[in-house]
Amino acid sequence: MASTTTLALILALGLSVFLNGVFCEIVCEDLPTGLCAFSISSSGKRCLVENNYVVKEGTMEYQCRTSEVVVERMRELIETDECVNACGVDRNMVGISSDTLLEPQFLAKLCSPDCFQNCPNIVDLYFNLAAGEGVLLRDMCEAQRMNPHRAMTELMSSGVAAGPVSSHLFSSAPAPSY
């Protein structure tokens, strides 16, 4: 009888662990900062790395937080290392700025087939950032492929170099066509 009870307890414990794994949710505040940037919570909101506070030694502490930016067609996503590398983004970045779109090396990686065709989460983020500045990422990528210098000139003349964009500006832009 004791062995039947023990077996039932082990089976119940195993089932409990299995169900917790199946129904596990991504909560930004629970993610380590090394996985935070470019992740999307179970609620469909983007995760972002924020400065937390200055520690006694004078170093900065970082924390993962949930933004108010909702991603329409993606949920529960932690970006892959392959996409982070292919797109030239940094998981440890704090905030996001349209200034990165002015960097020719960054734009070349973002517009590369490895990134643009295979990493819809990162492309969507930068698509919306560019759209908030009045520029279509697809057009920027085409210009970058044809003439990288001209792409930078067009981008700078659009006003995108004015500074960081608040999150509400890139949350309602139309979806990119991949």
UniProtKB/TrEMBL annotation:
Specify whether Signal is a keyword of the entry. yes
Q: Respond yes or no to whether keyword Signal is given for this record.
A: yes
Signal sequence extent: 1-24
Q: Which Pfam families match?
A: PAR1 (PF06521)
* Parts of the chain that traverse the membrane: none
What keyword terms does UniProt attach to this protein? Answer: Signal
Q: What is this protein called?
A: PAR1 protein
